[in-house]
TrEMBL record:
UniProt KW Amino-acid biosynthesis keyword: no
Record keywords, A-Z: ATP-binding, Cell cycle, Cell division, Cell shape, Cell wall biogenesis/degradation, Cytoplasm, Ligase, Nucleotide-binding, Peptidoglycan synthesis
Name of the protein in its database record: UDP-N-acetylmuramoylalanine--D-glutamate ligase
Species of origin: Arenibacter aquaticus
Primary location class: cytoplasm
Pfam families noted in UniProt: Mur_ligase_C (PF02875), Mur_ligase_M (PF08245), MurD_N (PF21377)
Gene3D superfamilies: Mur ligase, C-terminal domain, Mur-like, catalytic domain, NAD(P)-binding Rossmann-like Domain
SUPFAM superfamilies: MurCD N-terminal domain (SSF51984), MurD-like peptide ligases, catalytic domain (SSF53623), MurD-like peptide ligases, peptide-binding domain (SSF53244)
Length: 444
């Protein structure tokens, strides 16, 4: 009996363990931190051996295959030892894909991947297709494959998950954009991070598709130097394309082979240029699966967007509060500031991943009236913008930040939480940060 060891007892780890049992593996789950009560119950139910608060090497190094949760870096000594002894260390995406015959739509990118994944899944559901939406969001992909396999999967995939693939191949791959992010995990070398994102296409053949942003110079340059085998379908806001998605006379045009689809830009429920791009990517994927134009249009008009992504929370005394906690890097915050139409009180800060704030400078000058720093160390933000805005306040808790924003904001302003940083200094994750922001607003 083959031995599967799962490192990390969270959503993807426990899901992989369930699939492992179903496929006849002897399974052991090991987590260096505590395992949540809900996951312990599941492990007990399936009689899966597990441990928490430690990694017992004797029970791990004898594995035939190891599934590592994406939060564990490759540089951890245990992972290095496993690889040196020749044990394959793979991601949940790789493991689960070996046990499904579904058509896979894989979506990656520094920003926009959650919205694009949710919108693509929404269109597929509206078309009546059996679809699972998983990967970096929602329920575990492996658990879905084990418990109720689907005909299609729309997967949001992070670079860390792509680092752990061997044979994984989406029929349709989407690359929303590439901007510097997570560089702390890639030796601060941007090229390593770009290469990681492009792994989504590494096993694709001429019968598969790569949908990508043709306005993104990083992607375009990389493709010139490192051609892929799949059929390229670009999208662009800046120019007309022979094939792919583009804008003409305020309409979104999608051309695939000799088939052209047109849609009014006004049909989009989501605001902002970046959401036009996310919509183009999702719609192109839907057209490749031959979903009808009417279904696509109806889906786009009814789509609500992702939580914690430019989410309008409340209006208090004619001030709009917007939760963009999911903006964990500079590029995501760029899109948020770009979509602001009123003077903005901007709440920013957290764990800096090697951020360069210079690209935000023109938008901050134009739109931001005050900055509220929210982090344990705000020095880099203060250095970057101290001379640019009239008012800058340091805070160290969400309640405090929201109270300060409430005092500063005037009729017609927007208070925007768009941190441009990771959340782990003061919060569990970006969702906790966004939820605390919403709770603090409701207390005002």
């Amino acid at each position: 009996m083959k031995r599967l060891v799962v490192l990390g007892g969270g959503e993807s780890g426990v899901g992989t363990a369930i699939l492992g049992i179903k496929e006849g593996f002897q399974v052991f789950v090991s987590d260096k931190g505590p395992v949540k009560e809900e996951y312990k119950e599941v492990l007990k139910h399936y009689k899966i051996e597990w441990e928490e608060l430690q990694h017992t090497e004797d029970k791990i190094l004898n594995a035939d295959v190891v599934m590592k949760s994406p939060g564990i870096p490759d540089s951890v000594p245990l992972v290095v030892t496993l690889k040196e002894t020749g044990v394959p260390v793979i991601s949940e995406i790789e493991f689960a894909s070996r046990y499904t015959k579904a058509i896979i739509i894989g979506i990656t990118g520094s920003n926009g991947k959650t919205t694009t994944t949710m919108l693509t899944g929404h269109i597929f559901k509206e078309a009546g297709l059996g679809v699972g939406i998983a990967g970096n969001i929602g329920d575990s992909y492996a658990k879905m494959v084990a418990e109720r396999d689907h005909d299609y999967y729309v997967l949001e995939i992070s670079s860390f998950q792509l680092d752990g693939i061997v044979d994984f191949k989406p029929h349709i791959a989407v690359l929303t954009n590439i901007t510097p992010d997570h560089l702390d995990r890639y030796d601060y070398e941007f090229d390593k991070y770009i290469a990681s994102k492009f792994r989504i296409a590494m096993n694709q053949t001429k019968d598969d598709y790569l949908i990508y942003d043709a306005d993104d110079e990083v992607i375009v340059d990389w493709l010139k130097k490192n051609p892929v085998r799949s059929k390229l379908l670009p999208f662009s806001l800046e120019r007309k394309l022979e094939e792919g998605a583009f804008i003409e006379d305020d309409k979104i045009i999608i051309k695939i082979e000799n088939n052209t689809t047109e849609m009014s830009r006004d049909a989009l429920a989501l605001e902002g240029k970046h959401n036009v791009k996310n919509t183009m990517a999702a719609t192109t994927a839907a057209k490749l699966i031959s979903i009808r134009k009417e279904t696509i249009r109806r889906s786009i008009e009814s789509f609500q967007g992702a939580e914690h992504r430019l989410e309008k929370v409340l209006k208090i005394h004619h001030v709009q509060y917007v939760n963009d906690s999911k903006a964990t890097n500079v590029n995501a915050t760029y899109y948020a500031l770009d979509s602001m139409k009123t003077p903005t009180v901007w709440i920013v800060g957290g764990v800096d991943k090697g951020n360069d704030y210079r690209e935000l400078m023109p938008l901050v000058r134009e739109k931001v009236k005050a900055i509220i720093c929210l982090g344990k160390d705000n020095s880099k933000i203060i250095d970057a913008f101290g001379n640019v805005v009239d008012l800058m306040v340091e805070t160290f808790a969400m309640d405090q930040a929201v109270k300060v924003a409430y005092k500063i904001a005037e009729r017609g302003d927007t208070v925007l939480l768009s941190p441009a940083c990771a959340s782990f200094d003061l919060f569990e994750n970006y969702m906790d940060r966004g939820n605390q922001f919403k709770a603090a607003i409701k207390k005002l």
